[in-house]
Each structure stands twice: as structure tokens, then as C-alpha cells.
Specification:
The chain has 360 residues and is an alpha+beta fold. The protein has two domains: 2-145, Roll (PH-domain like), CATH 2.30.29; 175-359, 2-Layer Sandwich (Alpha-D-Glucose-1,6-Bisphosphate, Chain A, domain 4), CATH 3.30.530.20. The protein has helices at 2-5, 14-24, 130-143, 148-165, 167-171, 195-198, 206-214, 314-359, and strands at residues 32-41, 46-53, 56-63, 66-73, 77-83, 94-99, 113-114, 120-125, 181-191, 217-222, 231-236, 246-255, 261-271, 279-289, 297-307. The strands form two sheets. Strands 1, 2, 3, 4, 5, 6, 7 and 8 form an eight-stranded antiparallel beta sheet that branches. Strands 9-15-14-13-12-11-10 form a seven-stranded antiparallel beta sheet. It is elongated, with a radius of gyration of 25 Å. The relative contact order is 0.09.
Length: 360
Amino acid sequence: MEKKVGKKLNPKAPQKNLTFKKIFSLTQEEFLIKDFSCYLKRKLPLQGRIFISARIVGFYSNFFGHKTKFFFLWEDIEDIQVIPPSFATIGTPALLMILRSGRGFDARHGAKCQDGEGRLKFQFQTFASFSIASKTIRVLWRTKTTSYEDRAKLEEDQLGQDGKTNKNDDSESLSSNEDTTNFSNAFSAELLIAMELLIEVFEGGELEKKIMENVGCLNYSSTEWKETKPNIHYKFNRYLSIFGGEVTSTHHRTPTADGNGWVINETITLHGIPLSDHFHVNLKYNLEALQSMSPSCQVDVIICITWLERSKFRKRITRNIFEKLAHRSKEVFDIFDFNCFIFRLISHISYEFHGKIKIY
């Protein structure tokens, strides 16, 4: 990159990296490459900074306490155009980033416009050094033109070639005495909800569908409980997986020994994700009704990943799955708890209202 840009790119200070990740709520693996002061062109130009990392392009502005921030992926960018200086660009060149159709809608509030094909357009201008900013951004974008799916396929092919030459080391099944199973407590909480309401999260109705779509499961559908197992199908959004793979899972529900709750085991099968045939993913939901004055339940979610074959990406994939599924589990029950709180609040207000009517 330095050779193509024609300028040395110094590593950013740890504090600046930390601030960058905090602003955009990024994972620890993310790191800042460069940031530039510029204006975002909308109805009125907005001064801020554009941040670039190996994965994203982000913009942040704090104008007298009014904060504006958004980011999108390099792979979402279809084209980057240089706009010549004009009165509209305050006499300086500008960069116009055009996203692919249907991409980057989380950042649409920062877009200059959206064309007839559904592509969002973002315009950045008035850089302190347009030449350096333009070169750096365009070089990074060109390195990302190969899609994540293609690069994953190349990695998978490379692993296959390594397996042919080093069959005993990389492609053989894991030995029985090797620790191939990873357990993690993903989520624990006490919810002020009756068990009859809590179990609706797994009943396959509109409530479950709405919650799962809110946490990033696209085209979510499920079958009814047949004896003990319903089948579920959905697709990851790009936040949960950059590959956007499809998912099928099976729920197995059994009552607890004391009859005060349920144990739900979910077996997840991933499709279209690199190395998905190298491991199995299971989630275990422990739902227990607590003995207290008000209805409440203890919820515990445990993630189990069992590896079937060796991979040099094992630790990275395991950590990523744990983080994503733990975050999803927390969001599911947070949304459900919030909806129940709103329902109780509305019911209480309705009761008070009708009470006053009766009094008068």
C-alpha cells in the first residue's frame, strides 16, 4: 500500500485505535489504517473525519453535540469517482463512493442521494490533502474488489492443497484424546417474565419471527413442534457473517427434572460458509422458573462447538462464532424483555385509565 500510495503509513497510536473501535462499536480485531478531515456532502456540508480500516469506511462528526456516524464495508462499494472542483465542492475535488444496489442501508442517513437502481451515493470533499486521501482510499478499495466469498474459496482451495501434501497433519480427523469441544456460557440473566411468556420465544409464532429478524436473521421461517423437534431456516445478515450463509437448525425441547422449566437444545447447520463441514455448533437454552413473589425466570445460554477436522483457522473461527452467537443471544432476550415491559406498561396505563372512568 505504501508503495502504491507513495507515502509511508505510520501505525496509529493505541489510544486512537481504541477510540476508533469505540465510536463504531467494532471488535478488537479491527484496526485503524488512516483517517482524514473532510466534509460530508448532504443538503448542507457537514465537517467530520473519514476513517478507513482493512474492512470498513466510516465517517464521524460531532457538531456542537449533534453526532453523526456511519460505516459501510469495502466490498459494498461498486465504484469510486473523482469529482472535479466546482462551486458545489467549494473549489476542491471530491470523492463519490457508490455502493452496490441493496447494500449499506444502515448508513443511508449519511448518503447524498439514492439513484433509480437503489444505489446509495456518498460524497466526501474538502480534504486537507486530496491527493493523499484519494490515493489511499482508492488503493484500499482496489485491494478489496475480490469478494470475501472468492477469497474464502481460495483459502479453502489452499487448505485442500495443503491437505493433499500434508494429509497426516491438516486433513485427518482429530484424534479422540484431543480436546475438540469448546464450551462457553454465552448469556445469563434473570427476567421478570412468566415461563408461559418466555417459552413463546421458541414457539415459532410471529413474536419469535419478529425478534429473530430484528437481530439479523433474514427470511426467518420455522415449522411447528412435531413431537419434540421443529425445523428452522434463515439466512445470516452481513453483520453476523460476512459470507451471508444460510442456516438450518433443529430445536429439541425437554422439561427439566423438577418440572419448573425447559431445556432446549439447538443443533445448527451452516451452509455457504468456509470450513462449515469442519465443525458442529450447538446451543443449549436453560429456562428455569424462579420461586419468588413476582413471576421471573433464569435464562442461561451455552454454546458448544465440536471440531471434526484440523484447521489453522480453528481458534479464529471458534472465537468469532462465540462472539456473534453470544451477542445474538443477548439481543434476543433483551428485545423480548423490552417488548414485555412495554406490554406491561400499556396494560397498567389501560387499567388506571379504566379505573378512573369507573370512579367518575
